[in-house]
Write a structure and sequence with these properties.
The longest helix has 91 residues. Strand 2 and strand 3 form a beta hairpin. The protein contains 15 helices and 4 strands. Helix 4 packs across helix 6. Helix content is 73%, strand content 6%. The protein has a 4-stranded antiparallel β-sheet with strand order 2-3-1-4. It is elongated. It has 476 residues and is mainly alpha-helical.
Length: 476
């Protein structure tokens, strides 16, 4: 369908379109004038983004679109509406109960029926790009509308506190039981540690272990030193028992042995001197040889006496080394036993510390949840209360009329097109060409169009001959 055909249809069916437009506009105007006036009261609340003084966390990160949408759903929930009904005691009104019985035949709950009725006239919208929520209630009575809007806000604030406090109370009860169990576990661990310390006689386990370690180190040093001394004395004993006993330091350093050696040397020198002058059988030679032999015996006896002391010293050193080794081994066993006791005590101590940490953590959560369960404020505040509106919010007569005109226009055009489709007629050369499928060679003008054409031609001829006045009077 071309635009010319569309215009031709409208020109042919303009009466139907105009009638529908008039009916639509008239009905809308009459209904708008007859409907009761509705007053809209608006109350606003704001979500605070400052840190929560009780929960000790920043609520600014929670002000997301999903959180704002959740708060809108909370305001529109049955819980808030039922709280409004109970706070205002609407269910106690006899007229309201009679109306409920009339509509529901006494079935269901009057509070739920009232809550559903109140929610139908409630409108909750968050402000764009902010944490402000507008609560609007519409009613024919402006005071009633303002009262209900404020009632919904108060019920919302109370419900928000309940939604925050109820879980905190449950957590508080849970952590209270856990705190009792943690305290019992801590007391049990402390009792076990105390009993272990009394049984082992431990007061300061680490200090005692340090003393025993120092003693063990000292005995180890003594053993090392005695081993060196014993090795030296053993070597000297071996030397003393051998052929070079006269070369021992003790023998060489003995004054008796030195004196006997000197006497022996002198006697041997005297013997050589007298042997050259006297014979071997001379009494002086015999006496001198007897003195030399006696000196040698005395020197050997003194040497054996000195080497015997070296042997005794070596035996004493070996005995001391054995005793120190035994003491070292006993001290080592004692230190190992103390380490085992310390490790066992450390396990019990760690159990006490772990139980203490668990108890402290549970106690901290218990105090926090107890504090939150006693809270009476939330991060929601009333920004402005609703006041009775001076002007009605509806019905909007002008807007409804304009919309009815637009709607009536579309209905009229649609009706004209539907009627045209039901009763198709030829209204232009294009329609004839489309319906028959043959080209149009020419079209006869309408009678009025022909007369108008003759008048225009006569006027043009008179203008050309200069007689313009007469045609003008004739046209008039």
């Amino acid at each position: 369908m071309s635009f010319g055909q569309f215009i031709s249809i409208l020109r042919a069916r303009w009466v139907v379109a105009l009638v529908l437009l008039g009916i639509t506009a008239s009905v809308t105007l009459v209904v708008s004038l007859l409907l009761p006036k509705q007053y809209a009261a608006v109350a606003t609340v704001v979500m605070d983004s400052k840190p929560d003084p009780v929960a000790a966390f920043n609520t600014g990160a929670l002000l997301l679109p999903s959180v704002i949408a959740t708060q809108v759903d909370v305001i529109e929930s049955d819980r808030v509406a039922l709280r409004v009904v109970r706070d205002l005691k609407l269910a106690d009104n006899p007229q309201i109960r009679d109306q409920w019985k009339e509509e529901t035949k006494g079935q269901g709950s009057v509070e739920l029926w009232l809550a559903d009725s109140l929610k139908k006239k409630l409108e909750v919208k968050p402000s764009r790009e902010s944490n402000v929520i507008n609560v609007t209630y519409k009613s024919p009575d402006p005071k009633f509308a303002a009262g209900l809007a404020n009632a919904f806000v108060r019920a919302y604030l109370s419900t928000t506190v309940e939604l925050r406090v109820d879980p905190a109370r449950q957590y508080s009860s849970f952590f209270e039981n856990r705190a009792k169990e943690a305290r019992e576990a801590l007391e049990k661990a402390q009792t076990n540690l105390s009993a272990f310390q009394r049984e082992k006689g431990i007061i300061a386990n680490d200090e005692r272990l340090d003393v025993e370690n120092a003693r063990l180190n000292e005995l180890s040093s003594q053993v090392v030193g005695l081993q060196a001394i014993t090795a030296e004395s053993s070597s000297r004993q071996t030397q003393a028992q051998g052929s070079s006993a006269d070369k021992l330091q003790e023998v060489l350093g003995s004054q008796i042995v030195g004196g006997l050696k000197l006497d022996l040397t002198r006697a041997e020198a005297r013997l050589q001197e007298l042997s050259a002058k006297l014979g071997d059988s001379h009494p002086q030679i015999v006496e001198l040889k007897a003195n030399i032999a006696e000196t040698r015996q005395r020197m050997d006896a003194e040497t054996k006496k000195i080497t015997g002391g070296v042997t005794v010293s070596a035996n004493i050193n070996r005995q001391r080394e054995g005793e120190i080794k035994n003491a070292l081994e006993a001290q080592r066993v004692k230190v190992l036993r103390l380490k085992e006791v310390r490790d066992e005590g450390a396990v019990l101590t760690r159990e006490v510390e772990s139980a203490q940490r668990s108890y402290d953590a549970v106690l901290a959560r218990l105090n926090q949840s107890s504090l939150e369960s006693q809270a009476t404020q939330s991060n929601i505040s009333v920004l402005s209360e609703a006041t009775p509106p001076m002007e009605p919010a509806g019905p909007k007569v002008v807007l409804n009329t304009i919309l009815s005109i637009v709607l009536g226009t579309f209905l009229g055009i649609a009706a004209a097109l539907v009627l045209e489709l039901m009763d198709r007629r030829v209204r232009s050369p294009e329609d004839l060409s489309e319906s028959l499928g043959v080209p149009v060679l020419g079209a006869l003008p309408k009678p009025m169009a022909k007369r108008n054409l003759a008048l225009r031609s006569s006027m043009q001829q008179r203008l050309l001959t200069g007689g313009g006045a007469a045609p003008a009077a004739g046209v008039q």
